[in-house]
Amino acid sequence: MKPLLRAVLIVDALLLLGFGLLFLLTPWTSLYNALLLVQTQPALAGQAFGVALIGLGWLALHASIDGGLTSSVARVVGHVNWLTGVLMLVWLLGLHTPALNGFGQIVSVLTGVVLLVLGLGGVRLSGAVRRRERLRVAEAVAAERAEKQAAKDAAKNAANSAANSAATRREPVVPATAGFPVYHAEPVVEPVLPAAPAVPVAPATRPAGPASSMSLHATTNESGLSASERAARAEAAAARDDARKSAADAPGAPRPPFHG
């Protein structure tokens, strides 16, 4: 829509420059008579009006190139054009002043209609372009605010995560309350049991007979016994030996073979 508004501004600039040049040539009487136009009196007023129109046309041409001035200048030029068109139609059709012949009146009326339509179109287009520009600016501002808010939220989340990780790494501290003792966790020390003394073990030897078995029992089992227990064991061993001898001397008992 902005390229269309620039095209309208170019047309406005050409019209304004043309009318400004025509009013600047107000003292040229023969030109006005040839164009069937009414000459402005005094000529100084016509030339001053022509200079103003040329300046406004140059501004419209510059605004058609510079995008920052397009909507503002188009709005001003549009209002000037449609108001000029309305004045021309009122004076020419309503008051019939100045008195022109048929061709001059037709040209003047057509000029007023063109100015009216072109001015209103320029005003409408400039308003639409201005609304779009404001919407773009608002969207850009909203996007910038959203980016800033997102950056702040990211920084806040990073700080919270760092604080949480630091809190998990260190021991939690219980706040002390007035009137209540503060308990601290103490490390539990495992008791160390003393090692049992090593008991020397006599080398095992093959028993040769009852005496050797008795001595083996006596040496292996009497080391950790009291005197009474040792005496009882000695009596039991003697009783077993007597029982074996009596069983060997009994009649009918098997005897070992005789060796000569």
Uncertain segments: 199-220
Q: What's the tally of helices?
A: 7
Gap from first CA to last CA: 147 Å
List the helices and strands in order.
HHHHHHH
Specify the biggest β-sheet: none
Q: How much helical structure, as a percent, in the residues? A: 55-70%
**Total E-strand runs:** 0
The structural class is mainly alpha
Global Rg: 65 Å
Strand content: under 5%
Overall shape: rod-shaped
On the 0 to 100 scale, the average pLDDT is: 75
Keywords: Membrane, Transmembrane, Transmembrane helix
Protein name: Transmembrane protein
Organism: Paraburkholderia rhynchosiae
Write the layout of secondary structure elements.
Blueprint: H1 2-24, H2 29-34, H3 43-65, H4 70-94, H5 102-169, H6 210-221, H7 227-249
Helix pairs in contact: 1-3, 1-4, 1-5, 3-4, 4-5
Task: Describe it.
This is Transmembrane protein. Keywords: Membrane, Transmembrane, Transmembrane helix. Residues 230-247 have a biased composition (Basic and acidic residues). Residues 212-225 have a biased composition (Polar residues). Residues 150-170, 204-260 are annotated as: Disordered. It is a single chain. By secondary structure, the chain is an all-alpha fold. It has a domain at 2-153. Helix content is 69%, strand content 0%. It contains 7 helices and no strands. It has helices at 2-24, 29-34, 43-65, 70-94, 102-169, 210-221, 227-249. The protein is rod-shaped, with a radius of gyration of 65 Å. It starts with a helix and ends in an 11-residue tail after the last helix. 12% of the residues are buried. The model is unreliable at 199-220 (pLDDT under 50).
